[in-house]
Each structure stands twice: as structure tokens, then as C-alpha cells.
Inverse folding.
């Protein structure tokens, strides 16, 4: 055991603290706590107003006076009776009776039958919960409890607000509170603030050490809020600062080619496009053109709902590159989508001199080798591909623009850029990221904060409304009868299932379900399958058959969620719809309503979880991608949406979005001012060190370290 009075309190391991047993240390570690610093950063999730320890008689009197149900109290008493009980058809109940010198209290634990095993008469326990009265008897329902240990030392100071900490089944909030209380005074003396005092005052925020003290030991609700505000701010501020530094590095130290944009180029491109652009498309094309006709590397996000026509916008930018004698590349998340893009683009560019190619992992070694040579010699102008484009051996002759179609997979922020033969280390291509599920405003300011955003907020003419219905599995037959009737009218449809092959899960699979439908509900219709395990040639053949109208119904996995564009397909059936994410459902639904006839989306599911019900309710409620994206954020929480794993950026632990949106805006403006004044953060070495520790690696800030 270590002497906890020495300096460097914050670095002491919690396992070296006097009251931390091995078991507790493991429990703490599972909460992410190994050092005293971690312990101090473990903030209360809420506070309980507390009356402190009471005798049973006092509790009785208080309840009598107040005549209210929810008075939180702590009572220490000795168990005299314990009765486990299952009652037929009712909730299980463990009943206990406890006494102190002043009276008796009755306790009910509902639905926690295991509690009976840990309790025995004569045991002294501390009960914490709300009081009520039943037939003259004082009682507590479902109180928290713990055994009162012999000669327990650290007593919690009685105060009004008691912190409740995130805990687990092996270490209680009370024990954590006691631990924090035992180190807090010394620990906060060592906390250094990375914000200059002037800034802190301007923001009306407490010093960092004070903020921790206020959070763990508030006297009033205001205290607790003020402490939390400061700590949340720091979290948001560090990320914003990282994003701004990154943006600054990119814009000020790197350069990209100037691409040509004038009336001649404009009209030459327009001649290739068989329709008139929407106003929104025109506007975003101008925004992009404005960026890429300068040497400041573009870093732009193009968002537009499914079917809003992002591809032609991308094509404009790529043709600007080609006209200026550079190459351009477009990356898609799946082979199917890459194939679709390639098809669209090469059709639009038929009979021109522009050379296009498709690079996916389906190429054989020889084809791949030839193509790579053509890319590096500059013979190919536009390359469409999957992330296979990012492999080492793909080197461009002179690439000026990369476009990533992430669809709804935001978070999978592709930070790698495509390579050029050039040995100018400061030359990079312009980048455009396209996404079909709009990124909620809150998120666009966080990890996407280094991107400029263009939005297509208008659909091309000729789109039809989509009706969405949630259907119970037992009524599936009605859905298929309707699909069959549409097929008889010459229309087509999709059926989406979660799996490719049968499995023990009981979920429907592409092959199994297609057979069932052929022989049952869809007897007489031509039903084919498409999924990720087919070769791309097989898949393309089936897709072509579907486009040509030779196939009535396509049974598929989510491979069809993006890029498939068949206006005659008017109905989509999604089996086990509760299994899919909100963005995914929205994408899938976007496969219909693409022609002159109205679309129908049938979601077959009986949702088993709260989240799933909410997702299905949201998708039935609205077809607006922006609303869906916000709802997704609410349901899943930003941690998930961040794609934290892929982006490598840790989700916030204290700040919460969208709740802390205002604070985020504040953090953003403070960070922006700071970077403008001091781009290398040399005014505060401590801030810089903390910034790099938190985000340096994920954001690739290495070069100013
Ligand atoms: P997304 O934004 O989902 O990628 P696409 O670029 O695939 O959308 O466009 C969807 C469909 O709409 C395509 O068939 C495309 O040719 C068509 N389209 C795009 N813009 C227009 C327009 N301005 N007028 C008519 N049709 C358009
Ligand atoms: Mg698209």
C-alpha cells in the first residue's frame, strides 16, 4: 500500500487506496477507472436529495407530517425476518422486516428473487429509498441496500444533494462516492487548468479543479450544473479545437489543382445530361465549382436525400477535372454501388473522349494490373471503384479530385487520400464526400466540423409519394397478395430479408424466402435473388434482367439499399424490419417512388424492443430524410452515430447531443477564434498537450506536434 499523502495523487492506482480490495479494483476497472484521476473524472449521473440517516421513528414522523410518497431516506436497521415468495400469476416478491431501537419497517423487493439469497436475519443493513405507508405500517419498496460492515470508517457527510454514480453489480454508487470523498480534497489540488483565466471569466466558467469539486460535492443544484457545464464544455471544446487545427493545416499548408469552370465547360457538360438540373443541383454545383477553381483544397460534404440526384453533381466536378487535364476518382462503399455508378457515368459519357474505368476487387490479377498501369500513365480519366482504390499499388498520374459516396455510412470517414506520382508533399486532391442520409446539424458541427456542407434540398420532378405501412407477420400474406396484384399490372417489387442463407436464427433468408414465395404467395411471378455472395457478373446479370423488366420481384439482402434505380419498381417489402437501422430502412424505402407511379413500403415486423418500435414509428411517420436523421440521433445517441470505432474519435462522456447543442456552438466559436489567433496552440502548452492526447491521432494532427 502506498502513502496517499505524497504528491501525484492523481496518478495513484485506485487499487493502492486503503479501502480498495482486489474485487473492488476489478469492478472499478470495468467502469474504466484505474487511477485516482479516472476516479475524479467519474462524474455523477444524477443527484438525490437526501435526508441523511434517520431512525425509523423519525422517518415515521416525517412521513406523517409531509404526507408525501417520495421522501428519500437512509435507515440502518437489523433484519428480523426475510420471506422469499413467488405468488402465482403475480410479480415475485421478497418481503423483509427490519428493526432499530425506535421501531419496525416493512420492506418489499419486487421482481428481484435473488435478493433473498443475500439476506439473512440478524444482518445489519443500510436501506436507501423512498418511504410509504401501508395499513399503518411504514414501508419501503425496492430500496437499495447494502450490508453495514463492522466498524465502518468513512462516514458520508450529510448533505442535501447526494451524487449517484454510474456503477455495476460489484461496486455500488455509495462505495464509489465514499472513495471519491476520501481522495477529492487532495486530488483537486493537483488539477491544472488549461484554459486561461481571462477566457474562463469571459465564459463565466469555474476553474477546472473547482468544477470537479462542484460536481462531486455540490451544495445546490446550481453548483452541480456549473461544474458539469465546465467539464462538458472542455470535452466539446477539445474536439472543436482539433477539428479547427486540422482544417487550418489543410487549408494553409496544402494545395490542390485549379480546375476550369466557365460557360464553355458548363454547356459542354449540359449537353451530356438528358434532363434539366434542379435549382438545388445548380446551386451545389456552383458551390463545388467555386471551391475547386482555387488552390485551397476543397473538403466538402454533399448531402441530399435518396434520389435527389447527387450523381450528376459529382459528374460535373469530375468533368471539370478532366477538362483541365487531370484525373478524378469516385469511391463507393459496395461493389454493387460502384458498378451502378460506373454504368451511369459511362452511359452519360458515351461517344466522348473521356476514358472511364471500374476498379473493384472482382478484377482478376491480370485485368487489375493492366488497369493500374493505365491509371498511373494517365490513360484513364475517371476511375470508379470501391475502397480497393486505396491500396498501395494504385498510383494516379495526376489526380485532382476524389469523391467518396458514403451513402448513409457516415462516420466511416475516409481519411486516406488517393496517391499521385508527383513528389510534391503538399499537393493533395480536392475531396467531396456524398451522403444520402443528411447528417444532423449537431453532428455536422462535431466530427464533420472540418467539412463545408452543400445540401440538395429538392427532388427532381416526377417523383411519386410513398406510403409506408407496418404489418404484423401474421398478415404478411395480404402484403404479398398486394405485391402480386401490382406485378399483374406490370409493375415490379423488392423483398428484403436479413440473411443470405438459412440459419438457426429463424430469420428469413434470400434463397429460402425466394423459394417460399415462388411456390406460394407469388406463384406465377418471376422471382430472382441478389445478394453479396454472388459474383459481380451474376449480380449484374440479375440486375440487368430486373432493369429490363424480365424479373418481377427481386428478393435481396441490403445490397440493394443504395444506388439501385428502377423506376418501374413500385413496392418494397422489408421482412424482419425491426432488425434494420433507421437510416438503412430509409435507404431501402428510397428504392421505390422513383417513377410516375406511387410507391408502397411494407415493413413486416413485431418489434420486441423499445428502440425498434421507435425506429419503425419514425419511418412510418415521415419520408423526410432530415427528420429521420434527427430521430436516429435521438434514438441511438451520438456515440453510435459517430461511428466511433471507424473514426477513432472517442464519443463524449459528459456532454450529450443534441442536449448540449448551445454549448457546442459556444465551444466551436471559441475554438475558431483561438485557431485564427494562434493556429499552433502555443499560447497554452497544457491545452496543446491535452488536445493531442485526446484527438491527435484520430484527427491526424501529428505534423504540428
Ligand atoms: P442520389 O442522390 O440518390 O445518388 P441519383 O443521382 O442516383 O440520386 O439520381 C436518382 C435518379 O434521378 C437518377 O435516375 C437520375 O438520373 C435522376 N435525376 C437526377 N437529377 C435529375 C433531374 N434534375 N431531373 C430528372 N431526373 C434527375
Ligand atoms: Mg447515389
Amino acid at each position: 500500500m502506498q502513502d496517499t499523502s505524497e504528491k501525484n495523487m492523481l496518478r495513484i492506482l485506485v487499487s493502492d487506496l486503503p479501502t480498495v480490495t482486489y474485487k473492488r479494483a476489478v469492478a472499478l476497472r470495468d467502469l474504466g477507472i484505474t487511477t485516482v484521476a479516472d476516479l475524479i473524472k467519474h462524474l455523477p449521473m444524477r443527484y438525490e436529495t437526501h435526508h441523511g440517516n434517520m431512525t425509523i421513528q423519525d422517518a415515521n414522523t416525517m412521513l406523517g407530517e409531509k404526507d408525501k410518497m417520495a421522501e428519500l431516506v437512509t435507515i440502518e436497521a437489523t433484519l428480523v425476518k426475510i420471506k422469499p415468495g413467488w405468488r402465482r400469476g403475480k410479480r415475485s416478491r421478497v418481503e423483509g422486516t427490519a428493526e432499530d431501537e425506535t421501531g419496525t419497517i416493512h420492506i418489499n423487493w419486487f421482481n428481484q428473487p435473488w435478493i433473498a439469497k443475500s439476506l439473512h436475519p440478524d444482518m445489519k443493513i443500510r436501506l436507501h429509498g423512498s418511504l410509504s405507508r401501508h395499513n399503518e405500517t411504514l414501508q419501503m419498496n425496492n430500496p437499495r441496500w447494502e450490508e453495514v460492515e463492522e466498524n465502518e470508517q468513512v462516514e458520508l457527510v450529510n448533505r442535501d444533494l447526494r451524487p449517484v454514480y454510474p456503477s455495476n453489480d460489484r461496486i455500488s454508487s455509495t462505495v464509489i462516492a465514499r472513495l471519491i470523498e476520501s481522495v477529492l480534497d487532495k486530488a483537486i489540488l493537483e488539477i491544472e487548468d488549461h484554459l486561461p483565466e481571462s477566457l474562463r471569466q469571459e465564459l463565466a466558467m469555474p476553474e477546472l479543479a473547482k468544477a470537479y469539486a462542484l460536481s462531486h460535492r455540490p451544495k445546490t443544484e446550481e453548483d452541480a450544473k456549473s461544474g458539469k457545464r465546465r467539464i462538458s464544455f472542455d470535452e466539446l471544446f477539445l474536439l472543436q479545437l482539433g477539428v479547427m487545427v486540422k482544417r487550418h493545416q489543410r487549408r494553409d499548408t496544402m494545395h490542390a489543382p485549379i480546375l476550369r469552370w466557365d460557360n464553355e465547360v458548363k454547356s459542354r457538360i449540359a449537353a451530356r445530361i438528358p434532363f434539366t438540373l434542379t435549382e438545388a443541383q445548380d446551386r451545389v454545383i456552383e458551390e463545388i465549382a467555386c471551391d475547386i477553381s482555387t488552390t485551397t483544397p476543397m473538403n466538402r460534404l454533399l448531402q441530399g436525400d435518396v434520389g435527389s440526384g447527387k450523381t450528376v453533381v459529382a459528374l460535373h466536378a469530375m468533368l471539370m477535372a478532366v477538362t483541365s487535364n487531370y484525373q478524378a476518382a469516385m469511391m463507393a462503399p459496395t461493389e454493387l454501388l460502384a458498378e451502378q455508378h460506373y454504368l451511369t457515368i459511362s452511359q452519360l459519357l458515351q461517344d466522348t473522349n473521356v476514358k472511364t474505368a471500374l476498379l473493384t476487387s472482382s478484377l482478376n490479377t491480370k485485368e487489375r494490373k493492366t488497369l493500374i498501369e493505365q491509371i498511373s500513365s494517365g490513360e484513364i480519366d475517371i476511375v470508379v471503384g470501391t475502397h480497393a482504390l486505396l491500396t498501395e499499388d494504385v498510383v494516379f498520374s495526376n489526380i485532382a479530385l476524389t469523391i467518396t459516396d458514403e451513402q448513409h455510412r457516415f462516420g466511416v470517414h475516409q481519411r486516406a487520400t488517393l496517391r499521385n506520382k508527383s513528389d510534391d508533399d503538399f499537393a493533395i486532391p480536392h475531396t467531396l464526400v456524398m451522403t444520402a442520409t443528411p447528417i444532423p446539424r449537431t453532428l455536422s458541427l462535431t466530427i464533420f466540423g472540418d467539412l463545408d456542407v452543400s445540401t440538395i434540398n429538392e427532388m427532381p420532378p416526377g417523383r411519386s409519394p410513398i406510403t409506408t405501412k407496418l404489418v404484423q407477420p401474421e398478415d404478411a400474406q395480404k402484403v404479398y397478395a398486394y405485391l402480386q396484384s401490382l406485378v399483374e399490372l406490370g409493375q415490379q417489387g423488392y423483398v428484403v430479408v436479413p440473411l443470405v442463407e438459412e440459419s438457426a436464427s429463424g430469420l428469413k433468408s434470400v434463397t429460402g424466402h425466394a423459394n417460399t414465395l415462388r411456390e406460394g404467395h407469388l406463384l406465377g411471378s418471376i422471382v430472382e435473388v441478389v445478394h453479396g455472395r454472388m459474383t459481380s457478373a451474376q449480380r449484374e446479370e440479375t440486375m440487368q434482367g430486373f432493369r429490363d423488366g424480365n424479373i418481377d420481384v427481386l428478393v435481396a439482402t441490403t445490397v440493394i439499399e443504395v444506388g439501385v434505380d428502377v423506376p418501374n419498381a413500385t413496392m418494397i417489402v422489408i421482412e424482419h424490419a425491426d432488425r434494420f437501422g433507421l437510416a438503412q430502412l430509409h435507404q431501402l424505402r428510397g428504392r421505390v417512388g422513383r417513377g410516375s407511379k406511387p410507391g408502397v413500403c411494407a415493413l413486416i415486423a413485431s418489434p420486441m424492443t423499445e428502440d425498434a418500435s421507435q425506429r419503425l414509428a419514425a419511418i412510418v411517420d415521415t419520408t423526410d430524410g432530415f427528420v429521420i436523421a434527427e430521430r436516429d440521433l435521438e434514438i441511438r445517441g451520438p456515440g453510435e452515430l459517430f461511428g466511433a470505432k471507424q473514426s477513432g474519435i472517442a464519443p463524449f462522456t459528459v456532454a450529450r447531443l443534441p442536449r448540449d447543442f448551445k454549448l457546442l456552438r459556444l465551444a466551436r466559436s471559441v475554438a475558431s477564434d483561438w485557431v485564427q489567433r494562434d493556429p499552433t496552440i502555443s499560447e497554452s502548452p497544457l491545452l496543446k498537450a491535452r488536445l493531442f492526447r485526446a484527438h491527435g491521432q484520430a484527427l491526424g494532427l501529428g505534423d504540428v506536434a
